[in-house]
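User: Hey, quick favor. My workstation is busy. Could you predict this chain's structure for me?
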Amino acid sequence: MNIPKLRIGNITADVPIVQGAMGVRISLSSLASAVANAGGIGTIASVGLGDIEKAKTEYERISREALIAEIRKAKSLTNGPLAVNVMGVLSNADDLIRTSVLEGIKIIVSGASLPLKLPALVEDRSVSLVPIISSGRAAELVLRAWDKRYMRTADGIVLEGPLAGGHLGFSMDQLKQLEQHSLPILLADVLEAIKPYENKYGRKIPVIAGGGVYDGKDIAEILLAGASGVQMATRFVCTVECDVTQEFKQAYLDAKKEDIVIIKSPVGLPGRAIRNKFIKDLEVQGKQVIKCPYRCLTTCNVAEAKYCIALALVNACYGKIDQGLVFCGENAYRCDKIVTVRELISELMAELEAY
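Assistant: No problem, here it is.
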């Protein structure tokens, strides 16, 4: 199979892989720049950055300055394509989006709620806007809103299927019926939903599909099904350049298939994680005592939340695995070694070519 290039707006990547955003502090400048240097599109996750103590009193400023530092570091390490992912449920999402644009980022990816107002925050048409959705219906809702309100359409769409890691755009019931919500089925619905907008604006809207994509065979099948590229996150955790601690990477290497579970997040969405001591303790305790000075998520009800997800994710990224939440994709248990980003992408492309 010939390896197609991935075009998003004015940016062309030689490798049709977008490295998925992994917060908190998993996919930062080191990983994103390494992916960009290897021909893909590297993504910085903007959530949960900055000194956690200082952020208690100046959350927005600390987060902004930390994001600026990561963007500048990444740009010093690569001339390749970089994206910034901003979760729509963040209380400072608008500030992070505007900051990314001011720092010269040309791809803004936004999910964790439908980014219906994203074009209002980014008037520069040279910046590509890429919503994350989980169905054809969601894609149509976003594109219809953008068309009606801003006379603009998406420069690309990320479709995340139910096998993805972290927070998921599916209900618990849907996650019990995976065969009805497989990535190829969802992809066909999205491709159909975007046709009217491709026709109206006279250009292709590339769909980047992710969730359970693990090897070159998976990439080939998704591309043949009509996607322009794939999004991969889980496999990049077990790379030398991934910004997280060795303890976090080891949790992936040690995980068995039965350890990958669906949890209920304080954000109000299901999430996929490794069932570690933290999760097991919660199953017994039921709820932790929470005092939240950050107010980082608009959807988090502190009074009802069983734990602080921000702190749980920060603990995990710092290597305090027994006190942290380790998000992962469905295939995390298949990771069995640490490799460089370039080695991983070379392996994937060899598998793709051989398909």
